[in-house]
Specification:
Layout (H helix, E strand, L loop, with lengths): L2 E6 L5 E7 L5 E5 L9 H13 L3 E4 L16 H15 L4 E6 L1 H12 L4 E7 L5 H6 L5 H10 L1 E6 L2 E7 H7 L15 E6 L8 H9 L5 E6 L9 H17 L3
Parallel strand pairs: 3-4, 3-5, 5-6, 6-9, 9-10
Antiparallel strand pairs: 1-2, 2-4, 7-8
Helix pairs in contact: 1-8, 2-3
Length: about 250
C-alpha cells in the first residue's frame, strides 16, 4: 500500500512524497516545471510498480503540488536538492530515475551526483538547459528589459494560468547547464520524445544522446506525440520502457 508523508527540509518548507514499498530498484518519478506527482505519467508508473511488486517514490519539489514554499523562490539547483533530500530519506539501494520535461534535467543532475545508485534513467520530453535555450534565448529584447527591471516575467501557458519566470531561475540555471560538453553518465538511458512537442524541440533528444557518455542510449521518437505524452498509447510506451529496464536491472 502506498504511503504518504511530508519532509521538513530544515528551513520550515515541507516536501510532499508518496512511497510504494517493494523489491528491486526504486522507480523515482521527477515531475516537470510547474507540474506535480499526481499526473497521469506518475500514476501509471505507480500502478505498474504496484502490480509488479516494485518500489516507487513520487515527490513534489518546493512550490509544486502539495509541497510548501513559493514557486517563484525555486531554481534548478533548489529543486534538485529537494529531490535528492527526499530520495536520500525515503529510499535505499538502487534507483531508476524517470524525469518528465524539467524532471529530465533534474534526473541528469541526480544521476551524476548519485551515480553509484542509479541503474537507469528515462527522460520524457527531457528538457536539459531549458532555462537558457527555451526561455532566455527565445525572449524578445523588450521581455529581457522587463526581466531586468522587475526581476520576473509573466509567461502565458497552454496548460493553465500564466506562470512567473524569475531572473533568479535563469541566472541560477546557468550553474547546471549540461549540453555544452560530455555528460558523465554511463547507465542505460531511454529518451521518449514527441515530434509535435511545441515546448521541447525533438532534436534536443538527439543532442542529449550524443552528449551522454553512456553507450546504452535509445531514443523513441513519437511522430504525432506532443509535450505531455499522456495519451493512452504514450503511457503504454512509458510503462513498457520502465518495465524493460527494470527487468534488465534486476527488478
Amino acid at each position: 500500500m502506498e504511503q504518504f508523508g511530508r519532509l521538513d527540509r530544515g528551513d520550515g518548507v515541507e516536501l510532499a512524497w508518496a512511497r510504494l514499498p517493494g523489491e528491486g530498484p526504486t522507480v523515482v518519478f521527477l515531475p516537470g516545471y510547474n507540474s506535480d506527482m499526481a499526473g497521469s505519467k506518475a500514476t501509471v508508473l505507480r500502478d505498474l510498480c504496484a502490480a509488479r511488486g516494485w518500489p516507487m517514490l513520487r515527490l513534489d519539489y518546493s512550490g509544486h503540488g502539495e509541497s510548501g514554499g513559493a514557486f517563484t523562490d525555486g531554481t534548478i539547483g533548489r529543486w534538485t536538492a529537494d529531490a535528492r533530500l527526499v530520495i536520500d530519506r525515503q529510499t535505499s539501494g538502487k534507483l531508476l530515475l524517470v524525469g518528465s520535461s524539467m524532471g529530465g534535467w533534474i534526473a541528469l543532475l541526480l544521476a551524476r551526483i548519485m551515480a553509484a545508485r542509479v541503474v537507469g534513467l528515462v527522460g520524457i520530453a527531457a528538457a536539459p538547459d531549458f532555462t537558457e535555450t527555451m526561455m532566455w534565448d527565445t525572449m524578445m529584447p523588450a521581455e529581457r528589459v522587463t526581466m531586468a527591471r522587475l526581476g520576473y516575467l509573466n509567461v502565458p501557458s497552454e496548460y493553465g494560468e500564466p506562470y512567473r519566470v524569475t531572473m533568479g531561475l535563469i541566472e541560477e540555471g546557468r550553474n547546471h547547464l549540461v549540453l555544452g560538453g560530455p555528460i558523465p553518465i554511463t547507465c542505460p538511458v531511454r529518451l521518449l520524445q514527441g515530434q509535435r512537442d511545441p515546448d521541447v524541440p525533438w532534436e534536443t533528444a538527439l543532442r542529449l544522446a550524443a552528449a551522454l557518455d553512456s553507450t546504452d542510449v535509445e531514443i523513441r521518437l513519437i511522430k504525432d506525440g506532443d509535450h505531455r505524452l499522456s495519451r493512452p498509447q504514450d503511457l503504454a510506451i512509458l510503462a513498457g520502457t520502465v518495465a524493460t529496464l527494470l527487468g534488465k536491472d534486476g527488478g
